[in-house]
Amino acid sequence: MRAHHRLYLPLLLILFLCTCVSAQEKMMKKDGSLSRELNMDVAQTSMHTVRMGGKTIPYSATIGVQPVYDDKNEVVAGLHYTYYQRTGVDDPNRPLLISFNGGPGSGSVWMHLAYTGPRVLNIDEEGFPVQPYGVSENPYTVLDVADIVYVNPVNTGFSRMVEGADRSQFFGVNQDVTYLADWLSNFVSRNNRWRSPKFLIGESYGTTRVSGLALELQERRWMYLNGVILVSPTDIGIERNGIVKAANRLPYFTAAAWYHKQLPADLQTKDLVGILPEAETFAQNELLPALARGMSLTDAEKMAVAEKAARLSGLSKQEWLDNNLMPATSYFWKHLLRGEDRGNFTVGRLDSRYTGIDGMASGDRPDYNSELTSWLHSFTPAINYYLREELGFKTDLQYNMFGPVHPWDRSGDETGPNLRKAMAMNPYLNVMIQSGYFDGATNYYDAKYNLWHLDPSGRMKDRLSFKGYYSGHMMYLRREDLKNANEHVREFIKGSLPGGKSAKY
Known about the structure:
Layout: H1 2-19, H2 23-26, E1 42-52, E2 55-69, E3 75-86, E4 96-100, H3 110-114, E5 119-121, E6 135-137, E7 147-151, E8 160-161, H4 173-190, E9 198-203, H5 205-221, E10 227-231, H6 243-248, H7 250-259, H8 265-268, H9 272-293, H10 299-311, H11 317-322, H12 329-335, E11 346-347, E12 355-356, H13 370-390, H14 415-425, E13 430-436, H15 444-454, E14 464-469, H16 479-495
Parallel strand pairs: 4-7, 4-9, 9-10, 10-13, 13-14
Antiparallel strand pairs: 1-2, 2-3, 3-7, 3-8, 5-6, 11-12
Helix pairs in contact: 4-5, 5-14, 7-9, 9-10
Keywords: Carboxypeptidase, Hydrolase, Protease, Signal
Protein name: Carboxypeptidase C (Cathepsin A)
GO molecular function: serine-type carboxypeptidase activity
């Protein structure tokens, strides 16, 4: 057998070298031209550095595609990913951070090029686009403490299905979790990361995804996590519709109105975190009970609630009365700055610091999302430049900022309860929520509500934490919050490492 091994080793080496063709070559046709067909199993690696904290951190960037298999072990899709590893560090126990964005249908671009990665797109200090487009070093990246992989689910980024594949196996809450868990298990095996402490971070719908993955990885792939980070979380299957949803909007109204200087002087002169407790207390102890009573409220009681709500929201008392004490967020975005003295602007949905101009001042909702158009303005050219030119991934495929994934099956969403169960089963597993105060789509008070109801018993509350920021849905776009939020991620990762402590209660 030893003689056979000596014979096979050179042959295996030759075979390995032959298969290590660059992604650029594999994405080309025989005549050397680029193709719109995705090679389902390909990778290439380049070497880079980033300056942070006065030190130069060397790292490798692997960009590629790894296949998705169905239950017959046939390839049905290829997921595009970018994997960063700090080099010069020989540590098999180095943490691994696995990053997803949301949508559903959004490419893994936002946190990749604006939050935790080693490169950040060119924007101003508050997050608005600037030209020339491009990227620069991110001095706050968490690459110093963890390797990072950014994953694009099917039909996002450069990820694609095999022609003729059954769409129903991908596009739904539970389908998404099932195939991604299998893909992640293969990724960890391929890259020899089973010994690494593992962390998931998801933004927006990505929080639904990673909440579900926590239990799916444990129960179906026997992969136990150390932490889950929920950035601007959705409802993750936790019921808060109806009057709870209506009351929970009020603290966000307060924050956005404060930013645009629409609150009374005694509130406006205070710092935001100094007035939010008043808004939260009113929403919980007065507005919610009033909404529960409905028409049984006396006129005087209804008027008193409307007056307090107006004081805390920037909308008038009459607007609260006209909307039965439940003005919609779309109404707020349209009307907060309505009037010549206020500029007749709309405010953004995902980040209400951004303003827009509508065709008419009247109406129930803005003509467009001013924040999203601003983000696409800078992110789209930056990610295409970065992946194609700096990392050298050559293809004629379009990078899907938002891909065709609908209709999306939202039935059976138990992702929040599943995350609680995963925590109960795994004493090492911690959860952190990060939210921007000016996010009107997944508002920060809803995020707090999620936190309270993720573990109603309170027995795991020491493993749950919340961080708030002076920005919106992508709080890291504001430079100060980019620094603070990354530091919170860094602290969370370090604090979630067991340090030799046994996993037991």
